[in-house]
Amino acid sequence: MQMGFLLNIKRHQHYFYISIFLVGLFFVIIGLITSKITDVTEELVVEVIREKHVAQQNALSFEINALDLYMTDVENTFSNGLSSDQLVSRLGLISELTLTNEKIVNSWVMVFQKGELIDKFSSRILGAEEWAGIALEAEALMALTMESTINKIVRTDSSTLERKMIMGKSTKGDVIIFGYDVDLIRFWEYYSQNYSSRGGYNVLFNGDGICMLHPDPKYIGQAIEFYFEEVSIQDVLNNEEGSKGIFPFIQIQAVSEYLGLEVMRYYSVIETNRKHDVIQVASFPIQINIEESLLDTKRYFYWIGLLTLVTFIMILGLSRFQLKREFVKNRVTEKEKEHLKLMNEKYQRENAVLQLRRLKRKMNPHFLFNALNSLIMLIETNPELSQEFVLKLSEVYRYLLKDRQGNLITVKEEMEFLQQYIFLQKIRFSTSLNVSILYEDGGMSMTKSIPLLALETLVENAIKHNEITKTNPLYIEIKVKEDQIVVSNNYNPRAVADSHHLGLEYLKNSYEYYEVSTFRARVVGDQYICCLPLLTV
């Protein structure tokens, strides 16, 4: 025993040598690539920053277009050629819809006839001073000859707004102006909560250089000149050069007034459906991103080193543990073999019981005696029919005595046998026995299987257990369905029972052997019904 254990130790020594080699190779590789990690990391960081820039611009474009959506709806309404009353009614509905957007704080409609204001309403109550300011901007909009919309930053004591206004005309020439205010502080709160700016931050400007979004809200609504000292607003608006298929942008290095760090700054124009100028300035602190990535990379290497050491220790432990495991595995294998042997013996016993029951069914003496009595009577009364009777009887017993593998038979074979069996019983009972067979499966179930003699068993049980007379005949109905065969008969039990239910026990055990639980046999009202599930083997 001890000699075998030592032999196993030698057999597993190669695990030890391989683990030492792998650990040594790992540290050699780390030493070779350490000097190149920083360069690769810088390239990766720049690429990641560009991808972040693209993702952030797409998000900002989506949000700005969502705020401009109502302007598009109003523009489509103006193009329908409606009267003043119709326009006011539809614009009122759009005004109500704007308030479903939490970033929009007010909307209004103004109607001018020959330059004079004749009607106005708003989604919230406005003071005279507020209406006066809106009226001035409306007059400025009407004075424009090339534009029908304006986007303007408006600052009040309590809020900073982006005011959007659009002008249209009714069929009678009345000028109708629709407008709404976007609260830029609310927009900043919404953007900060829903979009992560990890590793950098975004600043938005309109075409006049007024700040619309900034991580520090005190700058919102102001002109921040130092953002456009090296790059002018016109440079950004006129730029058409991109990089690797990305939207056009201008890239510079600058010192962030917000972070107090050197950053990589990207200037680009947000694509909007309304075609008004929105400039995005994205700032990313390169050095911090590189240091974080390097720190992460070093951390990964440390973890890899630790895992390598743990793996080395585990290999040493597992190589010893495997010796014991082989012994336990052999014991488990032996137990499994013993279990399989017992299961096989159990199967053989169950199969033997089924075969014994089949044999009892094959050699049923009552059926043979009754058939011979019927034959004697036929020979005297109808010799020709007696010859057919003998042929049918021989076919029945040839079917019964045929040696088969297993105890299943196809529905087709069982139905053919049943026809012969019913013929013999009809000779005996004449009109007192009525058997009908209905096929409701379209012939689809003929190749499926049922237990051998299942239908004969049920028909014989019906004959055996019920009173059968000319005045009280037995009616048996057999319905062949796609998934089962339903056998039913009128229930008129004899006064004295003469059965030990071997037939039903045989069927029940057969279905249990094939793990089918839908076999049923029961009395329902004045009918005895049995359901034989069809098997697919």
Notes on the structure:
With 537 residues, the chain is of the alpha+beta class. It folds into two domains: 46-289, no CATH class; 363-533, Histidine kinase-like ATPase, C-terminal domain (Heat Shock Protein 90, 2-Layer Sandwich). It is 52% helix and 21% strand. It has helices at residues 2-11, 13-78, 84-98, 128-143, 184-194, 233-238, 286-362, 365-381, 383-401, 411-429, 454-465, 502-513, and strands at 104-113, 116-122, 149-155, 160-169, 175-183, 201-206, 211-213, 250-255, 262-269, 278-284, 408-410, 433-439, 449-451, 474-480, 484-490, 520-524, 527-533. The strands form four sheets. Strands 2-1-5-4-3 form a five-stranded antiparallel beta sheet, sandwiched between helices. Strand 9 (262-269) and strand 10 form a beta hairpin. It is elongated, with a radius of gyration of 47 Å. 22% of the residues are buried. The mean pLDDT is 81.
Produce the secondary structure layout:
Blueprint: H1 2-11, H2 13-78, H3 84-98, E1 104-113, E2 116-122, H4 128-143, E3 149-155, E4 160-169, E5 175-183, H5 184-194, E6 201-206, E7 211-213, H6 233-238, E8 250-255, E9 262-269, E10 278-284, H7 286-362, H8 365-381, H9 383-401, E11 408-410, H10 411-429, E12 433-439, E13 449-451, H11 454-465, E14 474-480, E15 484-490, H12 502-513, E16 520-524, E17 527-533
Parallel strand pairs: 12-14
Antiparallel strand pairs: 1-2, 1-5, 3-4, 4-5, 6-7, 6-10, 8-9, 9-10, 11-13, 14-15, 15-17, 16-17
Helix pairs in contact: 2-3, 2-7, 7-12, 8-9, 9-10, 10-11
Short structural summary:
Residues 355-432 form the Signal transduction histidine kinase internal region domain. With 537 residues, the protein is of the alpha+beta class.
